[in-house]
Design brief:
The protein is an alpha/beta fold. The chain is built from 15 helices and 18 strands. It folds into two domains: 350 residues, Alkaline Phosphatase, subunit A (3-Layer(aba) Sandwich), CATH 3.40.720.10; 99 residues, no CATH class. Strands 1, 2, 5, 6, 7, 8, 9, 10, 11, 12 and 13 form an eleven-stranded mixed beta sheet that branches. The protein has a five-stranded antiparallel beta sheet with strand order 14-15-16-17-18, covered by helices on one side. Belongs to the sulfatase family.
Length: 484
């Protein structure tokens, strides 16, 4: 009887400990730079809920990811840079050895959280290159609700057809009348159904079920917006006509208005999730993270400059003692180890993770996080410290040394000073270039570029027009010396 009592007491203690671990709601906006939001100084933005996260928690003024969707999501989910995973660009994911899948070689944060007793779900946009879809147990999600293609519909029992709207002749809509697969089944939609509303409701339902099961949860919400539809920016429930996917708004003032409205609607959706958490009485034990996958399309996305991969990362919740904007730097390789640390777990032996847990900094145990952050987009490498930047290190495009700057406390490219030959900054430059040597830069003779797919990719991305775009900022953001 005594042994049974001791065992029961221990089990209760373990359960209580598990229940005390924080829930995590991770919201990832699609294709938007920090300067589109109020907390980053945009006075036209109507984003009070997101601004409140930055005010009540901490906002990283300098956070980096890859500058394009697929590699950014791969980095987020694996905690490993492209030099580790082979995820360099959309359509440029190097295949792994021994026939193993992507998440077999590089476990996702969802799988690791699942292994630590968390319920996990994903909603919105997947887009992790060749990685296993969330209906594969290896991916680590208990539930999912995703915008999908007709190719994925064809894999379902009965091969259902999409009867909603289309962004072009082959792309299903992600906004009005979307094509959605929810937990292995097609979710029928009509023209008046707005995809982001559906995904948000799914996240809220998942949270409620997790609370009823008394289990900590990780809700990962990589949104489909404010990324536009193929033809332009769509309308949304707070602006424009139902069902308009933007066929006539590729550019101009109307496109700008729609983009702003979509950003504002992202804030409304986040508010709905926050309200659900409040109603369930778990706000004191839930961490909210708001981030973006890469910079805004056209002006930042896919470019090898700092703005391309300069992203939002702001969070609030239990155990986070840092407040306001911080000059500490982070990149998205830090997300996976941070989640595992928050779950009270440890990284499995044998897996390569390039990031570092943010928990010591967020909790106030440490006043600093890391000395440098790394970025990789396509064939370009970037490195940053709090005060210096190296960007577009790209032997493939004949820029082997990139460009070196002294930034001081400046951000967003303003006030950066070219410093390759400045004696005052040689020590910093030497250290940074030595650090870059840890990450082998792609070369023209790389084996992947000898494949049929690789040859075509290299031909397209090395054209004069593509080269010029990738190695420079958009003309509206050329605030510093970009000569090569």
């Amino acid at each position: 009887m005594i042994k049974f009592f001791v065992l029961a007491t221990c089990l209760l203690m373990i359960t209580a400990k598990a229940d005390d671990r924080p829930n995590i709601v991770f919201i990832l906006a699609d294709d938007v730079s920090p300067d589109m939001y109020g907390f980053y100084g945009n006075k036209e933005a109507k984003t009070p809920n997101i601004d409140k996260i930055a005010q009540e928690g901490v906002m990283f003024k300098t956070a980096w990811s890859s500058a394009i969707c697929g590699p950014s999501r791969a980095l987020i989910m694996t905690g490993a840079y492209a030099t580790t995973t082979g995820a360099y660009y959309n359509g440029f994911f190097k295949e792994g050895a021994n026939g193993k899948g992507f998440f077999e070689r590089h476990p996702s944060f969802a799988k690791l959280m699942q292994n630590n007793g968390y319920r996990t779900a994903v909603a919105g946009k997947w887009h992790v290159g060749p990685a296993e879809l969330p209906d594969n147990p290896i991916a680590g999600f208990d539930e999912y609700c995703l915008w999908e293609s007709v190719r994925e519909l064809a894999k379902l029992p009965g091969k259902p057809k999409h009867t909603g709207l289309w962004e072009d002749e082959s792309t299903t809509s992600r906004f009005w009348g979307p094509c959605i697969i929810k937990n292995h089944h097609q979710l029928p939609t009509k023209k008046s159904d707005f995809g982001p509303d559906i995904f948000t409701s799914f996240i809220c339902d998942f949270i409620e079920k997790s609370v009823k099961e008394n289990k900590p949860f990780l809700a990962y919400y990589p949104m489909v917006g404010p990324h536009g539809a193929r033809a332009g920016y769509p309308t949304c429930p707070i602006y424009g006509e139902v069902g308009d996917l933007g066929a006539k708004t590729n550019k101009g003032e109307e496109s700008d208005r729609r983009f702003r409205a979509l950003n504002d609607y992202v804030d409304i959706l986040l508010g709905r999730i926050e309200q659900k958490v409040e109603d369930l009485g778990i706000a004191d034990n839930t961490i909210f993270i708001f981030a973006s996958d890469n910079g805004t399309a056209v002006t930042a996305k896919s470019r090898g400059v700092e703005r391309g991969g300069h992203v939002i990362f702001t969070l609030k919740g239990p155990g986070i003692k840092q407040r306001g904007g911080t000059d500490e730097i982070m990149d998205f390789s830090d997300i996976l180890p941070t989640f595992v640390d928050l779950a009270g777990g440890s990284l499995p032996a044998g897996i390569k993770v390039d990031g570092k847990s943010l928990k010591p900094f967020l909790s106030g145990e440490s006043n600093s996080h890391r000395e440098w952050i790394y970025g990789c987009t396509a064939t370009s490498q970037l490195l940053r410290t709090r005060s210096h930047l190296i960007e577009v290190v790209n032997p493939v495009l004949d820029v082997p040394n990139g460009r070196f700057y002294y930034c001081g406390e400046n951000r967003q490219g303003k006030g950066y000073v070219r410093a390759e030959k400045n004696p005052e900054h040689q020590e910093a430059q030497k250290m940074m270039r030595k650090t870059l040597q840890k990450f082998s830069a792609l070369q023209k003779d790389d084996a992947w570029f000898q494949t049929k797919k690789g040859k075509q990719w290299l031909k397209t991305c090395s054209s004069p027009r593509a080269r010029e775009k990738h190695l420079h900022n958009h003309s509206d953001y050329q605030h510093y010396d970009e000569t090569l």
